[in-house]
């Protein structure tokens, strides 16, 4: 827990850069030392020639893109991956210089102008998109050459040209003015599964496509394939670069990959008790009375709710940590507040800090715990916290 006296920097808080985080009702704590540790752990898995792209899309999975980007670049990452053009611009505006790959499919004139202006590197997914890029770049500057990243669909059925058309696609991009192929890549659909069958099939398709391209005398300058799960699963998928998101934030893509590296969760979510009261047996709590006190209890109200990103479907199902003890949440989660049964915490005070996600003494509540309860994945939990919660650096 951070003390009030500690000088702590705000990681990301659009409403106000200098807001005193400790006066907040709720916040997200970001452990940049853990982030750095995770990047170094992943680097140890990679050979010297393999670069590490830190995927910082969606505001770095909710962790605050600019400070995350700066930290990972100091810790061994050499590329950044974003999903959208504005996400890339945000990093450039913050003075971040290393290459930034836009993983999504940009195609409008405005997006292409912005990519060229901010020196972002686009993904090319189809011959049509390649033609559009070449045409628009011609109108910007007849001498312009943009590094582009050719995406092959080897089985994800999302972005990219089908691997069987890889040769025609690459030949077209090679011929078009203003485009220079900086890499060829693909994306895995099932790398987090203990059954490698589909991953191996995708790997084989990628290998086949690359072999055909090389047979034409084209030497791809950089190949990349693996997300976090692929990186942790099989070194043969590392190629010249890996694109890791989840793992740099300290979470494992699957239980069976836990033994591979030692990762530390970067994010914690905390809030304060705002009121404490006694509730008699039989009293209903919160909207819809989905909780009725079975006996006299002591109830605490905490200033965080679903508008901050606490999933309402966790109502009556989640626990929080106070002084290292697990405490049940009771009744419907509301927009801005939740209630707890704090009968087992002696003399609880208003203002006390509650850990919703993270470590308190020797207990931990993880994004996986929430994801398992909700039938979703930790990626979605991390991305769900709203910007009403300031991101503050923990140390
Ligand atoms: C999001 C994304 C990644 C990172 O995935 P993780 O599972 O979080 O490591 C890698 N590549 C592409 C194309 C992505 O969209």
TrEMBL record:
Organism placement in taxonomy: Bacteria, Bacillati, Cyanobacteriota, Cyanophyceae, Nostocales
Functional note: Catalyzes the interconversion of L-alanine and D-alanine. May also act on other amino acids.
In-chain residues carrying the UniProt-annotated modification N6-(pyridoxal phosphate)lysine: 57
Assigned EC number: 5.1.1.1
Cofactor(s) the protein requires to work: pyridoxal 5'-phosphate
Broad EC category: isomerase
Cross-referenced InterPro entries: Ala_racemase, Ala_racemase/Decarboxylase_C, Ala_racemase_C, Ala_racemase_N, Ala_racemase_pyridoxalP-BS, PLP-binding_barrel
Name the record gives this protein: Alanine racemase
Catalytic activity, reaction form: L-alanine = D-alanine
Keyword set includes Isomerase: yes
One GO cellular component term: cytosol
SUPFAM superfamilies recorded: Alanine racemase C-terminal domain-like, PLP-binding barrel
PROSITE patterns in alphabetical order: ALANINE_RACEMASE
Top-level taxon of the source organism: Bacteria
This protein's record includes keyword Hydrolase: no
Alphabetical list of CDD domains matching this protein: PLPDE_III_AR
MF GO annotations: alanine racemase activity; pyridoxal phosphate binding
GO BP terms in the entry: D-alanine biosynthetic process
Keywords noted in UniProt: Isomerase, Pyridoxal phosphate
Pathway participation: Amino-acid biosynthesis; D-alanine biosynthesis; D-alanine from L-alanine: step 1/1
Protein family per UniProt: Belongs to the alanine racemase family.
Domain Alanine racemase C-terminal intervals: 266-394
Active site: 57, 287
Pfam family, one: Ala_racemase_N
């Amino acid at each position: 827990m951070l003390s009030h006296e500690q000088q702590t920097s705000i990681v990301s808080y659009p409403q106000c850069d200098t807001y005193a985080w400790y006066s907040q009702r709720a916040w997200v704590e970001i452990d940049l030392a853990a982030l750095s540790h995770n990047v170094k752990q992943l680097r140890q898995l990679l050979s010297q020639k393999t670069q590490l792209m830190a995927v910082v899309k969606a505001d770095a999975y909710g962790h605050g893109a600019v400070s995350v980007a700066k930290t990972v670049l100091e810790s061994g990452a050499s590329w950044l991956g974003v999903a959208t053009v504005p996400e890339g611009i945000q990093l450039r505006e913050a003075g971040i210089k290393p290459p930034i790959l836009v993983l999504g499919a940009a195609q409008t004139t405005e997006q292409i102008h912005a990519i060229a202006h901010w020196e972002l590197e686009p993904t090319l997914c189809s011959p049509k998109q390649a033609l559009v890029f070449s045409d628009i770049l011609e109108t910007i500057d007849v001498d312009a050459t943009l590094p582009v990243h050719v995406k092959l669909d080897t089985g994800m059925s999302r972005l990219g040209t089908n691997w069987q058309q890889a040769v025609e696609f690459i030949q077209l991009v090679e011929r078009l003015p203003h485009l220079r192929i900086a890499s060829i890549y693909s994306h895995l659909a099932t790398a987090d599964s203990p059954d490698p069958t589909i991953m191996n099939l995708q790997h084989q398709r990628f290998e086949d496509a690359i072999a055909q391209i090389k047979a034409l005398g084209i030497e791809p300058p950089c190949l990349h394939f693996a997300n976090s799960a692929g990186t942790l699963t099989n070194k043969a998928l590392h190629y010249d670069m890996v694109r890791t998101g989840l793992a740099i934030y300290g979470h494992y893509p699957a239980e069976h990959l836990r033994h591979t590296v030692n990762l530390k969760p970067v994010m914690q979510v905390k809030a304060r008790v705002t009121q404490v009261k006694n509730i008699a047996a039989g009293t209903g709590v919160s909207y819809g009375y989905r909780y009725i006190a079975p006996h006299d209890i002591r109830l605490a109200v905490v200033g965080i709710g679903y508008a901050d990103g606490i999933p309402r479907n966790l109502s009556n199902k989640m626990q929080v940590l106070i002084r290292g003890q697990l405490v049940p949440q009771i009744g419907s989660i509301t927009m801005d507040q939740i209630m707890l049964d704090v009968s087992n915490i002696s003399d609880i005070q208003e203002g006390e800090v509650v850990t919703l996600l993270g470590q308190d003494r020797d207990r931990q509540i993880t994004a996986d715990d929430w994801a398992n309860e909700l039938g979703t994945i930790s990626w979605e939990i991390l991305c769900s916290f709203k910007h009403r919660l300031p991101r503050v650096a923990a140390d």
